Task: structure prediction
Amino acid sequence: MFDATRLDAGRWGATGAKVLGLAAAVLVTASGCAGHGKYTSEQITAAKEKMAIMKSATEWEMARQAYLTGDFHKAIKGVDRSIAISPKVAKSHVLRGRILTETNDFEGALASFNEAIAIEPKNVEATYHLGFIHERMLEREKALELYLAASELEPQSAQYVIAAAEVMIDLGRIDEARAFVEGRHTAFTSTAGIKQTLGHIAMMQGRTDDAVAHFNQARLLAPDDLTLTEDLTRAQVSARRYGEAESNLARLLATDKHKDRSDLVLLRARCLIEIDRPLEARELLIKLTQSASGSSDVESWILLGNLSYTLKDANRTRLSAQRIIGLAPDRPEGYLLRGLQQRRVGQHDAAAESFRQASRHDRSGNALVLLGLTYRDQGQLARANAAFQEALTQDPQNKEAANLVGSVIATVPTDG
Result:
């Protein structure tokens, strides 16, 4: 049997030292193992968090791609998974709000954008889109407040300046919109959208030459944007620069996107008339009124009828009058055109009846003036004078009626 007391001191000393050393090593190892276990636990937690962030980001990106392709059902499911994993990421709530906006869930969108701002108070995208929702809900003052806030958060972005200016315009604060945009104009001298906005403001203020200049600058900055060419063209028409407008309209109508735009064909015809190319205008209008889009367009028939009357094209004048009356029986133009053609060929009784019908739908007094002239053609001066007087009563500013009343009275004071 082993008896420890029999060990001599020398041997115990050496053996004891070894044992103590081994014990110390065991303690150190044990201590190290405990520390290593704690470290591994923290690493596992961090790894899990990192994986969660990566998974959330992946879900967000998949949701964004679905949103961009218009698959909003898939997009909302994806972004909701992303938010469930990482609920405190502002951009996820912004994306959710944008998806809900596209599906017209404005209340849900408002909640999402507000949540994004709660997480990140200076999130400019959430601020802007929140303004957009309020604008869609016709809460324009609130929308303006948010657009202005967005423009302060990101002053180098023209998008927010334009949005704020457009709301000012909608609110009727045109002068304020102009001052606001011009105050920031120097920062956006190469931005087509800013020039375009200034052009719209100029048009509303009747500064048509300024509008032409702004739209022209915008078009030079973005030559492929055909909406700018159209804006420029309309400004040129308003500024009576018909030749320039007609040239731009010809280019617009030569593009696949605009070749079937009946409103642009009509505008070009007006320009051709103004620059004394009536035969070209008539050909355009004939084709337009024979097309599917133009056959029921009253304005196209009115312009064709008036032009045909000017060119003494009796058949097309009568056809146009008939079509106008059929399409718009409550408007005076068809009856007036028919009456003018009847008066031209000496059908005075028929013309007088057409002008009387026109006068029932005309508040300008012009139909009554033509009725009076027809009576005068027939020598019925008292009836002519009465028609002119009625026209003047209807429109005291009608100078032709005033001149004709004086002329008839001076020629024949009374007539039974």
Notes: Confidence is low (pLDDT under 50) at residues 1-20, 22-34, 412-416. The longest helix spans residues 9-68. The radius of gyration is 40 Å. Residues 348 and 378 are 7 Å apart (CA to CA).
